[in-house]
Design brief:
This protein has 23 helices and twelve strands. With about 600 residues, the chain is of the alpha/beta class. The strands form three sheets. The chain has an eight-stranded mixed beta sheet with strand order 4-3-5-1-6-7-2-9, with helices on both faces. The longest helix has about 35 residues. The chain is elongated, with a radius of gyration of 30 Å. The chain starts with 5 loop residues before the first helix and ends with a helix.
Length: about 600
């Protein structure tokens, strides 16, 4: 029922009936007062929170989710088959599943228990009990029935809006229109979360709405109000208003666990515009950039093989080394100035990197002439990556089919910069050596304190700064790759959980949630990153000849500092054996190491 200003209605009735015959006026006013009191008691009869589904065609006029501004969005997991309904199970359990909701309905409650549906839900969401709320006509959808199932019974007991609801239960319903949503709001004083479901197959994000009362804000619990657009996000996803589907139940049940930020159409273009950046342009940029890198690397190999020199190539290789920091900075610029012109900010960032490279090189020649020419470039990269979260740029862990807690490319670039800062400052005196050590210590402290974007990956926070110091100080030996491959925390976790097969991170069985996913290795083997990187290695092998490899060997022997970045590549790859997402980072380090060696080679010819 829609909200009514009962006080105004009462005042109007009082004035109207008082002009009538006096014996009728008190009776009419008494009847109206009893009616209003009864309505108020109905509105205050429940305090449960409610999760409401609404189909996109019923939620409002058709909109383009790539351009339409809306403050709050849900990001859905990928699907192996567009006809499947496994995305609904993400709402129900807090985990992403392979499967069709119709399969679970037809095979029965026992099959759902055998698959571990309820065990996963309890381990992720805790003791959340759901109950079915009927619409005003007494109907309920199959989707709402799936959400209302609990482990204690295969039967779902439905509840009407005007009868007593189970205490502390999360009520679930599907609304055919917004009038129905307003009736649900009027029936409870709790929170109401409306989710647009099912999503379009080609755009894996839909809207959600915060309705009802007791949503957090800067001034305490309040009623949802889109004029201020005070929206939630995840701690490791500082994207205002963006929530993964697995967190929807957690949001409506425990909203205080989420960071809340203010965002409106003037200060924030919307998570849909941000997601469209990676959905449409991310892969294209990656392909074009890697193709250019391959051409530059092959060009460098040909120049070295023919004992020629080039004034342009060292600057291009320096730009490749600096490119992760440049991409991260361009993402922050796009966040502040507009995602619609992200190409402009990316171009300006690379354009600004050229004078920065010249300036850092000139400064280094004056204050630290004995340092490697890339030393200050690595220090600058650390500062930029520490200040600019890769989540905003084209290295974002949110883009693509898989969603990770941290950007593997960004973290690998940070590792490479740490290795370079420690190694390239060797032979410059104790002051400069301690600068590299101090930077590693600061990065390590920021990681374990939770104040940085890389804190989301605890194992890498502990390992990478320490490994960078070991490699840079030339303490690392090849036999140490074995303990790196068998990183004790990862081995202990593997011993407890074993291997699982979870395509694209989707669960086939509840037991697959915690183990080491073998599909991640297949995913890496068929990834575009590897398919682009292989021609680079093949091009070097094809055009390098024996003289080229002899020149590289001489470079490594003449200056031992040059061995640091090439050694960081197998270290990252071995660490990625039990942390598969960092295999992508090893590719990034491989490109950086090859660029650093060719940077030296074309300058010494």
């Amino acid at each position: 029922m829609a909200d009514v200003d009962w006080l105004s209605l009462f005042t109007f009735a009082h004035a109207r009936f008082w002009t009538m015959k006096r014996p009728l006026a008190p009776c009419a006013i008494l009847i109206l007062g009893v009616f209003c009191t009864g309505q108020a008691s109905v509105r205050a009869s429940h305090s449960n929170s409610v999760l409401v589904l609404m189909q996109p065609a019923l939620a409002g006029p058709p909109v383009d989710p790539a351009t339409y501004w809306h403050p709050t969005w849900i990001l859905w997991p990928p699907m192996l088959d567009p006809s499947q309904g496994g995305r609904l199970l993400s709402l129900a359990t807090g985990a992403n599943w392979v499967g069709n909701t119709a399969f679970f309905q037809t095979t029965g409650f026992g099959e759902m228990k055998r698959r571990g549906f309820f065990e996963v839900r309890k381990s992720v969401l805790g003791d959340v009990h759901t109950d079915l709320l009927l619409n005003s006509k007494g109907g309920a959808s199959n989707n709402a029935l799936v959400l209302a199932l609990n482990a204690d019974s295969p039967k779902v007991k439905p509840y009407w809006m005007d009868e007593a609801w189970p205490a502390s239960s999360l009520m679930v319903a599907e609304a055919p229109n917004w009038d129905e949503v307003r009736k649900i709001e009027s029936a409870t004083t709790g929170r109401v979360l409306v989710v647009e479901y099912p999503p379009r197959a080609d755009v894996p994000w839909t809207r959600f709405w915060l309705r009802g009362n007791r949503w957090p804000s800067d001034g305490g619990p309040r009623r949802a109000d889109y004029n201020s657009a005070y929206v939630p996000n995840l701690p490791n996803w500082p994207v205002p208003g963006l929530i993964p589907a697995t967190q929807a139940v957690e949001l409506v049940v425990r909203p205080e666990r989420f960071p809340w930020t203010r965002a409106d159409s003037h200060s924030w273009p919307g998570a849909n515009r941000f997601l469209e950046l990676g959905h449409g342009a991310g892969f294209l940029f990656q392909f074009v950039w890697m193709f250019l890198v391959a051409m530059i690397v092959i060009w460098g190999a040909v120049v070295v093989s023919n004992e020629r020199t080039s004034r342009l190539l060292p600057h291009l290789f320096g730009l490749i080394v600096l490119s992760p920091a440049v991409v991260a900075a361009a993402g922050v610029l796009a966040r502040a100035l507009g995602f619609g012109e992200w190409q402009v900010w990316l171009f300006l960032s690379f354009l600004a990197a050229l004078p920065i490279q010249f300036g850092l090189g000139e400064w280094q020649r004056r204050v630290a002439p004995r340092a490697h020419p890339l030393a200050f470039l690595c220090l600058f990269g650390i500062v930029v990556l520490a200040a600019c979260n890769p989540v905003w740029g084209l290295m974002s862990p949110i883009f693509g089919g898989r969603v990770w807690s941290v950007s593997p490319v960004g973290l690998a670039a940070l590792f490479g910069y740490l290795v370079g800062s420690v190694s390239f400052l060797q032979n410059c005196g104790p002051g400069w050596r301690w600068l590299g050590r101090t930077v590693c210590a600061i990065v390590w402290l920021l990681g374990i304190s939770g104040w940085s974007w890389w804190s989301a990956e605890a194992g890498a926070c502990l390992f990478f700064p320490f490994a960078a110091w070991m490699i840079g100080e030339r303490f690392f030996r090849w036999w140490m790759l074995l303990p790196v491959s068998l990183w004790p925390p990862a081995v202990w976790h593997l011993w407890q959980t074993g291997f699982v097969w979870s395509p694209v991170g989707l669960l086939l069985d509840g037991r697959d949630r915690a183990g080491l996913n073998l599909y991640s290795y297949v995913e890496f083997a068929i990834s575009g990153s590897l398919q682009i990187a292989l021609p680079i290695a093949g091009g070097i092998a094809l055009f390098g000849y024996r003289f080229f490899f002899r020149q590289i060997h001489n470079l490594l022997e003449l200056d031992l500092r040059r061995r640091a970045l090439p050694l960081a590549v197998p270290v990252a790859a071995c660490f990625g054996l039990l942390h598969p997402i960092f295999l992508y980072g090893a590719l990034t380090l491989g490109v950086g190491a090859a660029s650093s060696l060719l940077f030296d080679a074309v300058q010494t010819m």
